[in-house]
Design a protein that fits this description.
mainly beta, Ubiquitin-like (UB roll), Porin, 16-stranded antiparallel β-sheet, 4-stranded mixed β-sheet, globular
């Protein structure tokens, strides 16, 4: 199967897959060679010592939990490069470090001495906040004509890794399109076993503009000089991470939301039953699995999650929802990669108030080439196939003097892709996309740099014959 995919990949995207040098890190294979007379398939080495350098704030036991070997472990020699790569990937996926270098410091006979050098992220961020409120950059730039009335701005205070256990404290004071004040604290490692965590947050927000309905797959907004919606939200969550790759999350939240009676006049089904105020509890359980080289932009491995969600809006307006998403990536050649992604969602009962009908075009649930549209629904899903070729890898000097962030790395990928999806809506109304197979495709460029920043420039087309250049600055999932 992989051989067939390789032939297909090169036949369709030959223009962007040029022969390049292998990118296997020298630091991982350096000094790992068995002597000629030793059969490397059975030869073993013993971990003499694991030395961790470069950290200042992170607790050593938090780092050690991600390292897949200990002093005295016996490792088959041919498996050692994979172990070192796994150590690198698991430490990077904590989001605590901008760089991790795992090397064999020296070898004495069968003993290997390993050094793990890390560069911690900046953890204190009192920064100005600026964010476009529309669903994606193109919607704001083209349809909303780059209006700064549709921008949130303010201050955000982020203290990450507060106690050295990857815990985060966020305080946001936002104005502009949305007036919002929020505070959140997250601690994934409450105890020394590093398996139990918690997350708690509170927010208050209000808006003078609302998306009151969907007409021909476009959001219909209504704006006034007074506040149309006010919301108080509180949530608390418990997380359980029994091992490195699997995480369980249990969350409960309470929301009190009030809309102006002019919204009811525009859409009596906004909350359902012409309700002007709703107070409800949400309960959610999700399971996540991560076995990839780099979560924000995976090139190898599988990651996914599944969830069950329940919302109680009263006797007539309950929501039960299940869904999941996954990404599988693998290498075709030294710098060529293939990626498959998919997501599904089922919401019961099928008939829902307007504010719980959102599907395609909301968050990361979208198809490339349909960014200008929203597709409401009760059930649906999509699949994506993407072929990638790394064409550049370089670093530039940081203009801000820093001992730990002296260089900013960049990787550039060319890609070609195709998407297919479907959204079922028992009452499609004026929608032209519901209850039919959807198809899109295109080519693009991905730029990956530090702090999990991924910029995607994509030229996409859809089955209606429309095409355009689209910009995304978030990971797919």
């Amino acid at each position: 199967m992989q051989q067939l995919l390789r032939y297909f990949f090169f036949a369709i995207f030959t223009w962007c897959f040029l022969p390049l040098f292998s990118q296997v890190p020298d630091s991982i294979i350096n000094n790992i060679q068995a002597s000629p007379e030793v059969d490397s398939s059975v030869a073993t080495v013993v971990v003499g010592d694991v030395r961790i350098t470069g950290f200042k704030k992170t607790k050593p036991y938090v780092i050690n939990r991600e390292i897949p070997f200990r002093n005295g472990d016996v490792i088959v020699l041919k498996d050692l490069p994979k172990k070192l790569q796994l150590c690198h990937d698991q430490l990077m996926n904590t989001s605590l470090f901008v760089d991790v270098d795992v090397t064999i410091e020296r070898r004495v006979g069968e003993l290997v001495f390993i050094n793990v050098n890390i560069k911690e992220r900046w953890y204190l961020f009192p920064l100005p906040y600026f964010k476009i409120v529309d669903r994606n950059f193109n919607t704001w730039w083209v349809e909303q004509k780059r209006s700064f009335n549709r921008v949130d701005y303010g201050l955000k205070f982020m203290q990450n890794n507060v106690s050295g256990r990857n815990d985060n404290l966020n305080i946001w004071l936002i104005t502009g399109y949305t007036q919002q004040a929020s505070i959140r604290y997250e601690n994934p490692f409450l105890d020394r076993s590093l398996k139990h965590g918690m997350n708690v947050g509170f927010s208050y927000s209000r808006n003078r503009e609302m998306n009151v309905s969907t007409i021909e797959n476009k959001q219909n907004f209504y704006k006034e000089d007074y506040f149309l919606v006010k919301q108080i939200h509180f949530d608390a969550a418990y997380s359980y991470r029994p091992a490195i790759k699997t995480r369980h999350n249990f969350r409960i939240s309470y929301t009190d939301q009030t809309i102006h009676d002019s919204i009811i006049a525009k859409n009596p089904n906004y909350f359902g039953d012409s309700l002007q105020r709703v107070r409800y509890f949400d309960m959610n359980y999700s399971i996540q699995y991560f076995n990839v080289d780099y979560i924000p932009y995976p090139l190898r491995g599988f990651m996914g999650d599944a969830y069950i969600y329940k919302r109680s809006l009263g006797a007539k307006n309950n929501v039960f929802q299940i869904g999941g998403k996954g990404t599988y990536s693998f290498k075709l050649a030294p710098k060529s990669f293939m990626q498959f992604q998919g997501a599904v969602m089922l919401r019961l009962p099928f008939k829902q108030p307007y504010f719980t009908q959102r599907m395609f075009g909301s968050g990361d649930f979208y198809m490339r080439g349909l960014e200008y549209y929203v597709i409401d629904g009760a059930a649906g899903g999509f699949v994506r196939a993407t072929a990638k070729q790394q064409v550049l890898s370089f670093s530039v000097k940081n203009i801000i003097a820093s001992k730990t962030h002296d260089k900013i790395p960049f990787k550039v990928f060319l890609k070609g892709y195709g998407d297919a999806g479907y959204s079922y809506n028992p009452e499609p109304g004026t929608s032209m996309f519901n209850n039919r197979l959807l198809r899109t495709g295109g080519v693009g460029i991905d730029i990956v740099t530090f702090y999990d920043i991924v910029v995607k420039l994509e030229y996409s087309f859809n089955q209606r014959g429309e095409s355009g250049l689209f910009v995304h600055t978030k990971s797919d999932f």
